[in-house]
Design brief:
- The protein is about 45% helix and about 30% strand.
- The chain is built from 4 helices and 6 strands.
- Helix 1 packs parallel to helix 2 and helix 2 packs across helix 3.
- The longest helix is centred in the first third of the chain and has 17 residues.
- The radius of gyration is 14 Å and the shape is globular.
Length: about 140
């Protein structure tokens, strides 16, 4: 069952859920993202990652409006080390390529370098295929 977060206008702006079939956590971000909302949402997805000992995250920003570069530094320096410490190894980020959110995601990608494997995608099907491929490689050679 997805965990939803509601903004000050009573609208869902974030959902997170462990997908047992695919063994990844799926985050869906919706609308304009505030600094506080991103922190609360990012921290909320740590619980299903930890609870399910999950190394894979599918982060969907296709419905995000506007940039979120105001939070990139926090995500890179605060959230990512905590996520990696509890086992996150692969992060698939889906964005609409023409969006301002894509520019923010590119900044985050550069900040993640050396912390975890992150790839940007402009469609969810490719992101899912990448996560499945890295899962197969990890299962074949867990070292």
């Amino acid at each position: 069952m997805p965990h939803q977060l509601i903004n000050g206008f009573g609208k869902v702006y974030f959902t997170t859920e462990y997908d047992a079939t695919n063994n990844w956590v799926y985050n869906n971000w919706i609308g304009y993202q505030t600094y506080t909302g991103i922190i609360i949402g990012a921290d909320a997805c740590l619980h299903p990652l930890q609870e399910n000992k999950c190394a894979y995250l599918l982060n969907d920003n296709r419905q995000v409006i506007g940039p979120w570069d105001h939070t990139v530094e926090w995500v890179v320096s605060n959230w990512a080390p905590r996520a990696v410490a509890q086992g996150l190894t692969h992060f698939a980020q889906v964005v609409s390529p023409e969006s301002l959110a894509a520019q923010s995601a590119q900044s985050m990608l550069l900040g993640f370098e050396g912390q975890l494997a992150m790839h940007l995608f402009d469609n969810i099907a490719e992101a899912r295929m990448w996560l499945r491929a890295v899962q197969r490689v990890t299962e074949e050679d867990p070292t």
